[in-house]
Amino acid sequence: MADTRPLTFVCLASYFKGSAFLQAAKRLGCTVILIAKEAFAQEAWPRDSLDEVYFMPDLSRRPDILYAVSYLARSHVIDQVIALDDYDVETAAALRDHLRLPGMGESLARHFRDKLAMRLQARVGGVLVPEFTGVFNYDQLRAFLERVPPPWVLKPRSEASSMGIKKLNAAGELWPLLEALGDQQSFFVLEQFIPGDVFHVDGLADAGEMLFQQAHQYGQPPMSIYQQGGIFLTRALDRQSPQAQMLFSLNRQVQSALGMRRGATHTEFIRAHADSRLYFLETAARVGGANIAEAVQYATGIDLWAEWAGIEAAYLRGEPYALPEMRDGYAGVINCLARQEWPDLGAYDDREVVWRLKKKHHAGLIVASPDSARVEQLLKAYAERFAQDFLAVMPPLDKAPA
Questions:
Q1: Cα separation of 72 and 248, whole Å?
Q2: Is there a domain that residue 398 lies in?
């Protein structure tokens, strides 16, 4: 007899994000259970789309999360566990393994969270990566420092964005850092620093194929913005340009090498100033942050969060998934920390401004146009104005706040 009950999704959120996924899953007829970090209990979660909602102090703490979700399984037939934030990818994978659910398990999830694992796997798949080494054996570290010219970067293997990254200009700078890290040092990777222009490709995968890809270029490398402050800017590339086509091809190679089967992806590459080649930096099994998803939607009509929900539901129901028809438009994001509690963006009134950020001590907006050059022109002009009107700078964090 066919199983006619609604699908049940348990969605994990260590940050306030993914509302569009939750709403889309509910529209698709799913039972939607949210488990979020209690620090975000007062955020505007789409409660009309939630059948149940629970808050926990720390979603990554085991065995607490295993006990909690297993308790829910006593009264719910759980069909899938979804990680709405990068920090939840490994936790969701552990829950899938524990409950024997389909999708990414713990070993595969490392390819999308562990910067050492993803570099090793990408290199095996023939993808160009910066020189790197795990922080394990000191003789191997010394050999790396002698072989690979500085500067280098010491990166946490499982932090998100640019948190905790240290740039080193001399070999002697490494050892005091490792001493301070103590038993935590093996959770880092040492990598050659490559100056260049940084790009990202945001996409959707199903059955191991990239169904949708949108290529963007950052105004400045995210690491520079995070560590030194400044204006965050990213814009969609002309998708017919050789640069975009090369990024699409390289991203397909990366996702195949790392084993992506189904879901949303956000992948970063750098075009080195020294040799103009594209190097893989990192990837994630999630929707990109910093309002990139909104920019993609304004440009193309594709809601990455909603289509991800559609892909998951179609797979579990044994149905084919079809990507909606997309627009051939372009968009870009600009934002920064602001001196003002509620910055006034009223003077940014070009008709291409389609969205404004509403967040304390942040200024941000999205511009969209059928013309990629117009988007680039506006963002360049706005970046100069944002620096004068709003920009504030704060010291970077080494890790996400508890």
A1: 40
A2: no
Both tokens of 155, joined, read: 């990166």
Give Cα separations from 339 to 113, 353, 358 (angstroms): 33, 22, 14
Is residue 31 within 8 A of residue 8, CB to CB? The reply is yes
Nearest alpha carbon to residue 310 among 15, 48, 82: 82
How many distinct helices (H) and strands (E) make up the chain? 12, 16
Cα(9)–Cα(30) distance, rounded to whole angstroms?
7
Distance in Å from the first CA to the final CA of the chain: 47
pLDDT in tens, 293-306: 999 999 999 999 99
Count of domains forming the chain: 3
CATH of the domain at 287: 3.30.470.20
How far apart CA 376 and CA 382 sit, in angstroms, is: 10
CB atoms within 10 A of CB 186: 13
- pLDDT score of 401: 56
pLDDT at 2 over 70: no
Q: Are residues 27 and 87 in the same domain?
A: yes
DSSP helix, strand, coil percent of the chain (3-state; round to 5): 35, 25, 40
Which range marks the domain in which residue 146 is found?
131-192
Answer whether residue 142 is part of any domain.
yes
For the packed helices 115-124 and 242-258, what is the interaxial angle rounded to 10 degrees? 100
- Closest by CA to 316, choosing from 135, 102, 109, 152, is 102
Q: Which two tokens stand for residue 292?
A: 């990139």
Joined together, the tokens standing for residue 268 give: 């970063």
Q: What pLDDT score was predicted for residue 208?
A: 96
- Nearest C-alpha neighbor of 16 from the set 69, 85, 74: 85
This prediction's pTM? 0.93
Report pLDDT digits (tens) over 306-338: 999 999 999 999 999 999 999 999 999 999 999
82/142 Cα distance (integer angstroms):
41
